[in-house]
Amino acid sequence: MEIKKISTEYLIILFFFFIQVNEAQEAKERPNVILIMCDDLNDYQQVFGGHKQAITPNIDKMAKTGVQFINAQSNVPVCQPSRNSLFTGVYPHRSKDYGWTDHRKQPVLKNNKTIMRMFQENGYYTLGTGKLTHGKSIKNWDKWGLQINHNYGPLYFDGENLGSNPSVPFPYSKIGPVDGSYGRLSDAGTSEGKIKGEKGWVYGRDKKPFRYIHDNDRDLLQDELHAKWAVQQIKEMEQTAINQPFFMGIGFVRPHTPLHAPDKYFDMFPMDELELSDWIPEDKNDTFWDENFKSTLKGPRYYKTILDSYGGNRELALKHFLQAYLACVAFVDDQIGFVLDALDKSKFRENTIVIVTSDHGWQMGEKQFLFKNSPWEESARIPLVIHSPSMIKAAKVKQPVSLIDLFPTLMELCNLEGNHKINDQGGDLGGYSLVPFLLDDNEKSWEGPSGALTIVGNCGKSVPTENQNFSYRTENFRYILYGNGNEELYDHEKDPFEWKNVAQKKSYKKIRKNLRTEMMKIIETR
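Request: output the structure for the sequence above.
Response:
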């Protein structure tokens, strides 16, 4: 009897030992993931070299210890379709999604699973907060964060209507409280944040009161609240000893307009010390934007309007906007830092993949364009940094990749199983896994195309794919094909600012032909 008792106890101990070993092995094979999305963030970080005065120590630090994709591109440089594509893994030209349709209602994408759902179906605990998918979709999140009705802002309320920060000059201020507003929080004066309808800063279009006395006595901005929530979730999961891997998405809105931040971030960029990016007055002359789009669209209109607001003084006008943009970039970098620091201090540090990226970039006056949704480098290029526990070493990857590649990358990294489609009406995955770059910086192992594809869509439902506008970025070139057949070609080895369109030069005829062939292969097959 005694022998049997010992054997039973031994078997019980052995049983639990094997369970623990199995759980540990499963956790190792199924890492946690934190996806940090910014909005309208171009390459204005020190490590990406977009603007030499940018202050982004947290993104820079992560890039130096992770894999930095220095030629990453947005697949469509405007919020809604970019995020729809990223979270479903379907190219916009395949889904015909070029505008502002919720992915749950889009004719093709509603038949696709989001990456969150794939994680959820594979036993992951999914947490999200902020602006991730465009809209208020919180489906496929086991735990959703802050119920903020309007992540943009704060917005200025004059007691009767929402409008631009009082420091913004006319006529730019007439654009409105979101795109037409920038400046320090102190520009709008003080507000007690107690009574709805009080003049001053408010949260969103429902005008929820926002307290602002000074930088050190104020309510938290939306992105600060999201960062705080994410930090708290990391601590809670550690304290409760969560027994499943997690996928956390954090959507920061900065530096999306309105470009407001606490004064200390503006103080980092004194106006008299600011430098604008290099430019030439004739930069627009050999481009074909005007022949394919209306001049009343936001990019050229915002540029003209801001110049008119400062008496036609380009340098003065763009410096005011640039200061606010850089301040918001520094601000969101701090929020990213809070999350990374919390992770670094937690037990999840060695088993968590972190991705930092943006939905698209921003054109800062180049080619007389002040907005996103252009086919050029400033609007299409995005920061992309991935830190993975399985990574061999830090690396800089020159091979152009794009947001479409994140879905298959996460599928492979986390061993996710199952069909990415809900039914046969769903779109095919368009990207390729970036895992080879995380394991080895030898780009010869990449199975994807030589370049990254971006579409600047005409949103009309009757506009066929062949009449859309495509931009194709390889390591050394950017090739643009407009809907009317116009072409632009930029040699990045000789012309990193895309000043000289060489599409019609005889010496580039073969290159242009090859790039078009490569691009059309992606359009026709992916």
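The longest strand covers residues 32-38.
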